[in-house]
Amino acid sequence: MSQSTRWIMAAAGLVVLLAAPGLGAQGRVQARQQVAPGQSAERDSLEARVRVRMGQVLRNQLGLSDMQMRQLMLMNRRFEGQKQQLFLREREVRMGLRDELASGDTTRNAQVAALLDRMLEVQRERMALLEAEQKELATFLTPIQRARYFGVEEQIRRRLEELRDQGTRARDARLRQQPPPARRPPAAGARRPPPG
């Protein structure tokens, strides 16, 4: 794996951490409301540096001109919100499916079927978005540049999935380590069952 590819993988993780719960302006405003003013400025600075570095990696890997780079950045801004919404919806459905399967409740077939239908819907929307993106990319990138860009996006998507799965496993491990709730003693005057 090349150094630039490793950097893309690391930067993708940083972008997710920085931008949660959303990559758009609304997500950044919500994130700022949850951190102190100094932390917000630091977060914005780090996010800006990551985006600049990602742009440099893309420019180098795809061999982009200044004009192509500007067009790519504009296109990414247009598609950013849709991609983030798909990512969040897919994560929600995957978590719902995981919870349903973990519960072992075989009477919830209708709920599992509905979640599977939603997953297929998200995948169809992802394909439609990919087609729209590739159609627009074809107006200013060569086929080879488009293929390389597709490869970079796939690396980022896989990295996001890895980060999501790691987070889920860590959360599940924390929940398993928590002691069971303590039993409360019976209230004063409550009748206790006779020993037997």
Brief overview:
With 196 residues, this protein is mainly alpha-helical. 79% of the residues lie in helices and 0% in strands.
Please give a structural write-up.
With 196 residues, the chain is mainly alpha-helical. The chain has one domain. It contains 6 helices and no strands. It is extended and about 65 Å long. Residues 3-9 and 12-35 have low confidence and may be disordered.
Q: Which terms summarize this structure?
A:
79% helix, 6 helices, disordered N terminus, 196 residues, mainly alpha
Secondary structure layout:
Elements: H1 3-19, H2 25-33, H3 37-62, H4 66-103, H5 109-137, H6 143-177
What is the oligomeric state here?
A: single chain
Low-confidence stretches: 3-9, 12-35
Shape: extended
Distance between the termini: 68 Å
Series of H and E elements:
HHHHHH
Alpha-carbon Rg, integer: 23 Å
